[in-house]
Write a structure and sequence with these properties.
Number of helices: 7
Helix content: 55-70%
Structural class: mainly alpha
Number of domains: 2
Radius of gyration: 25 Å
Strand content: under 5%
Shape: rod-shaped
Length: about 140
């Protein structure tokens, strides 16, 4: 509330967007009660606290990835194995060339908490699918 007062916008808040965290929930509730007491809560508070769409999307994607976690884990371990030594990567490239598979894209490893990197890893695994089957 102090920040809103400093900026002179304490009467102009219609909605607030925060990611889900208990401290954010508490702060939003306190601010909402303060606005309500002053009669400055717009739309009876119906649209006051809106969850961050990016945060919600992250939860949805993480839940979906969880259903195929064992497959992702196998791909992750396979990529780590291939990238562990230069000789393995060289052999990988030689086999790719013999199969006529474009090697411009590299094998990607992911970071479990960053689903965009998991997507990159899966995308590169799909590109090299035939090769990975031959090597398995």
């Amino acid at each position: 509330m102090e920040c809103l007062l400093k900026c002179g916008i304490q009467d102009k808040i219609g909605t607030i967007t925060l990611e889900k965290a208990s401290n954010n929930d508490r702060a939003a509730t306190i601010l909402m009660k303060n606005l309500q007491v002053k009669g400055k809560l717009h739309f009876k508070g119906l649209f006051y606290h809106v969850r961050c769409c990016a945060h919600i999307l992250n939860f949805v994607v993480q839940e979906g990835l969880g259903t195929i976690d064992s497959c992702i884990s196998n791909i992750r371990e396979g990529v780590k194995y291939l990238k562990k030594t230069p000789s393995r990567l060289l052999k990988f490239g030689e086999i790719a060339m013999s199969l006529g598979i474009n090697t411009l894209g590299s094998l990607s490893t992911d970071v479990k908490t960053r689903w965009n990197l998991t997507h990159q890893m899966l995308d590169s695994a799909v590109h090299y699918n035939r090769l990975l089957k031959v090597m398995h």
